[in-house]
Structure formats: structure tokens, C-alpha cells
Amino acid sequence: MLSDFWQRHAVRVIHLKLSVCLCLIGFSCTIYAKSEVQWLHPDFAPYHIVTGGHKGLGALDMVESSFVSVMPQFEHTLMTATFSRLLHQIDTTDNACSVTLLKTPEREKYILYSEPYLLVEGSRVIVRREQLPQLQPYFTSADRFDLNAFLATQHFRVGISPGRYYGDDIQPVLNMHERQLVIPAGVAQLTHQLHMLLADPPRLDAVIGLPLEVEYLLKNFHASPESVEMLTVIGEHSFQLAHVGCSQSALGQEVIIQVNARIAAGDWREFTQIMAKYIPPSRRQLFEKVNNDYFSNHQYP
Asked: Which of 14, 34, 136, 190 is 20–30 Å from 82 (CA)?
């Protein structure tokens, strides 16, 4: 055994001497560490699944992996964070990125954004179906929900997640009625909010989320999707543009250049196909059409 040890040691010494000799006669021997990119994502199933048997298999997990796979020049680290923490990391470090971002003027002050890579379903106001009769005064003739009038009564409490942006028409209304907003603690915030909404008696009157995540969470805790109604708010687009966002740094700029190259090459088709697998059949055709119209014909829904 000692003989085997010394033989192996001798081989390592020979390899080391050979490496030194190659360097001395002019071969390139540059040793460097790859720059690290931290990919941050929230607990945001089924877009990002961070626990359980399907961990890492969410729709945007797949998109994130697709981007990572074409950037071997970087060391990639995947991290889970709340929406607020995610934004803080991008703002205060030089190597943070996320595929889970909507663009806003405020965020553009400290985030480098890619071109849009996908259109996803927009936010909805989620209420208990049994509430609908008492909510009729807040519907327009076009069957859109007047969130401003609803909150202006000061009788209703709505659950939200801090740091999350709910769309260009919903977010300004929420900002005007902060006293009616409830922010549960913890990472899985929408999960807690839905439990509060469906409790007996209810502890919330409404929550705000994306149709796909609400359907997924209801299924996970064995609640019927028929127990809630998803309301479209006045003026809110049915779909919204998703971007990759990175720290405003040289490294962040390098990542965004790589992302934009993929989008320009038509890889939005791959991302659309990934997401389509998670969309219920009843909405899948519209989702695919909306993305094709936008990226092929520049038509925004």
C-alpha cells in the first residue's frame, strides 16, 4: 500500500514539473476565477418552485436554466429571496440578476433590464366566489373591477407582498390606499394570504396574484379553484412584459448583452413553449397567440 502511495505521489510530481516546463517554454498558463452571477428568485410557484419534489422545475426556473446554460464563462449561483430582498440585492451588489422582473421607472434607476423575453398573464384581484353579490357595485358595464372604488370604502382589506409590482394600473391604486393593505410575514406570502382569504371567518377580503400561481397554490392545499373568482381590474392589461434584470455594473451589462442576443435570435419561442406547458389548455392558445403577435408583429395586447 505504501508502494502504491509513493507511485501515485511520483506521478503527481511529474505532472506538476511538466506543467511548470510548459509554462516556461511559452505555453499559456493563465489561472483565473470565473466571475460569479447570483440568480435570485422568490418563492413564486409555479414560476419558481423552491421546495418539495418539484423544486427547481418551475416555468421560470426552466427559463433561468436556459440562460445559465449559454453563459459558461460565469460561475452561476441560484438563490431564493423575497421580492424585497431580491430588489435590495440587485441594488446593493454588482453581480445579482433575476428573470422575474417587471420594468418600472423606479426600478430602472438601479436595474439594468434586458429586452422583453416573454409576455405573462397579468395580475388579478382574487376574492371568494361567495362575495360576488356584495361586490356588484364595483363592476363596470364591461365587467371590469373598480379596485379604487373598492378600497376607497375603507371597509375591505387586501393582501399584498412587499417589493412586488402588480402592474401599471393596479400598483398606483394600491399606493393610494396603503391603510387597507395587509402584508403577511414570511417567504411564501401569497400562500399565507390565500389561507387568510379562505379562512372561516375570512381574515382578508381580497388578495392580488397571477392566475397561474393562484391555481397552483389552491391545488397544493386542496382547495377548490371554484372557491375563488379572479377579477380583471379597470385598465389592466391581460398580459405583461417579463424582463431579465441585473445589477448596474460591468458584469450585469455582460449578462444582459448575452440575454438580449438570445432574444434577438428568436429564442423567445423556446421561452413561450416552456411557459405554455404550465398554462391550462383553456388559456394556452391565447397565451401562445399573444406572444407570437408581440414578438413577430410587435402587437402589444
From this structure: 34
Residues 165 and 216: their CA atoms lie apart, in Å, by: 20
CATH 3.40.630.30 is the classification of domain 124-231 = no
d(C-alpha 174, C-alpha 204), whole Å: 15
Q: Hunting for cell 441560484 — which residue is that?
A: 78
Between β-strands 111-113 and 239-247, what pairing exists: parallel, antiparallel or unpaired? antiparallel
List Cβ neighbours of 181 (8 Å cut-off, separation of 6 or more): 157, 158, 159, 160, 174
**Domain 36-120+240-296, CATH number (from 3.40.190.290, 3.40.50.300, 3.30.1120.10, 3.40.190.10):** 3.40.190.10
Entry pTM: 0.84
Q: Residue 290 in contact with residue 121, Cβ under 8 Å?
A: no
In 3D space, the residue among 95, 97, 116, 119 whose CA is nearest the CA of residue 41 turns out to be 97
| Structure confidence by residue, pLDDT tens digits, 221-262 | 888 889 999 999 998 888 999 999 999 999 999 999 999 999
Output DSSP code: residue 253.
H
At residue 221, what is the residue type?
F
Three-state SS for 213?
A: helix
214's grid cell: 393562484
Query: One fold for both 36-120+240-296 and 124-231?
Result: yes
The strand ranges marked E within the chain are 35-41, 74-80, 96-101, 111-113, 118-121, 124-128, 158-159, 181-182, 206-209, 228-231, 239-247
